[in-house]
Structure formats: C-alpha cells, structure tokens
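Researcher: Going back to the complex we discussed earlier. I've cleaned up the inputs and rechecked each line, so this should be the final set. Can you rerun the prediction on the complete assembly and write out the structure?
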Amino acid sequence: MHDSQATTVEHEAHNPALLHHFADAQQQKNAASLGMWLFLVTEIMFFGGMFCAYLIYRLAHFNAFAAGSQQLSIKLGALNTAVLIISSVTVVLAVKAAEAGKRKVLVGYLVVTVLLGMTFLVVKGFEYAEKFEKHHVPGPTFQFTDTFDDNGKQIPVSSNEAQLFFSLYFAMTGMHALHMIIGCGLFSVLAVLAWRGHYTPGYFTPIENAGLYWHLVDIIWIYLFPLLYLISRHS
Amino acid sequence: MSEHEEHTTHSQAFYLAIGAGLLILTATTVGAAFVNLGPFNPVIALLIATIKATLVVLFFMHVKGASEKLTGAVVVSGFFFLAILLSLSLADYLTRSWR
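Model: Rerun complete. Updated structure for the full complex:
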C-alpha cells in the first residue's frame, strides 16, 4: 500500500466512475461484486425452496413425476440448455470485450446474448402452448390419462399426483422464465449504454454484475433440465 | 496488496473450451438418462449438473482467482445453507414412516 496515495490521485483524475469513499477502482469493483454475490445467495435460497418442494413431492409420488416428465420434450429442453450455455459464453466474452475497451464487440455480444435469451423464451413458449393443448396445465381443465412406463409395464397414475408435477414444472420454469425476461431487459439496457460509451476498461462493473446474474439463471436451468425432463427415461 | 488493475478474465479460446465442455456434458446427461442405471440415474444426472454448475461458477463467474477473497466464502455459504434446507427437510420427510 506504500504508493496508494499516488495511485488514488491518478485514479481520481482518470476514472470519473470512482466514488470518493473507495480507496481505488479495484476496491470499488470488489465491493460491487461482493454485493452482487450476496444478492445471488438470496436467489439460490429462493429457488432452493422450490427445489426442496420438488424433491419431497418427487420422493412421495415418483411414478406420477416420471409419467409427467415423460410428457416433456427432451429435444426442446436440451436445445434450450444449449442456447443458455452459448449465451453464457457470449456473456463472458462481453465482459472480456468491456475489459479490453472494445465498444462495438461489447455491444455485439450483449445483443447476441439478448437474442439467445429471447430464443430460449420462444422455445419455452412453444412448450407451454403444447401443455395448454394437452390440458396439462394445472387447474379445473387439467387432464392426465398417461401411464408411467416402467420398463414396459404401464402403471396408471393419479391425475392429482400428476397435477402436482405440472404445478412444480410451471412454478419453477415460470419463475426461471421471469428471470430470463428480466435478464433480457437488463442486457438490452446495457447494450444501449455500452453503445453510448458508458463503459471503459476502468469501469464496466454493471456488465460484470449483470453477467453474474445471467450465469446464475443459467445454473438454475442446468439443474431444472435433468430434474424435470429426464426422470426415468430409460425403458 | 497490488495497486494494479487485476485482469480476472481468461482468453477467448479458454471460454470457448469451457462452453464446449458444458455442451458435451449436456449431451452426456441426455445420453445417460436413456441408460438404465437403476437408482443411479438421478445420481449421475445431478453429478453432471453439479460439474457443469461448478465450471460456470469457477470460470464464467470468475470465483477462481477472484481479487475479492470473501466472494468464495459467500458462494460456499450460499450452497451450504441450501444444503441445510434440503438435508433437514428430507431428514423430516424421509423418516415420517418410521415407527
């Protein structure tokens, strides 16, 4: 810390984004990142409650959960997983471009991220539409006549238990989709601000923190995909 | 303590490699779901998901090599409290049939 005085003055002169109560830009960045992570922990606990409910009901009503899961499209689920993974790559490349001060590359990656996020939501929309057509949406019109295929043995499942699976399916994927919509909005705003030159190699914390959010939403989907789509698929 | 701006990001090739690894693991988890492994099917699925999540946390979210050392503690505590939520809830529900 022996030369901190000199560096601080230099930073203040060169970095208008540095707030006066931070010693230097690195400390300010660390504080913002830590704050973002504390928010992400509350998000983990929020989704954790739903994962916990899922786990308990799945253990209690396994056949109905497997039968419900077999009604979901693995193709669309896997496609969406790939879309989200690719969007996470474009997000880290956006952060890298921001660090290097490449404004146009940064805007490009942010726009591609939003487009990938929207692709995810459109695919999800098609999946939801199919659920409405098949009356697999929980409520008064819910119908479930499919059986659980246990190695060739067709085991009938109760409609109420299947409704439990689809309630959790819609609650978890719906809440995840809401996070995706918020993420797309966030990245759209960042793209506009980046285009206007708000971010410099000395200050791109909003890009980094929005990136952390996007990655967490990706991680939640990484768990949702096998838990919802891949129950007892071998038969 | 260094006064330099720390570069936490990796090379583009590195990120693409991690992304490719995540896609391969996704294909693996789909493939494994169609193989009858008995009670190990969900175990394998969750193991692969956890490997993927760990890759994202360490390299995309830059927790490995983060300049703020507290970040690691916050991340671990987040998953630790999630583990408490899940394990204590299951300790209740899984033992209710015991007499």
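Model: Worth noting: Chain B touches chain A through 54 residues (CB under 8 Å).
Researcher: Good, that matches what I expected from the previous run.
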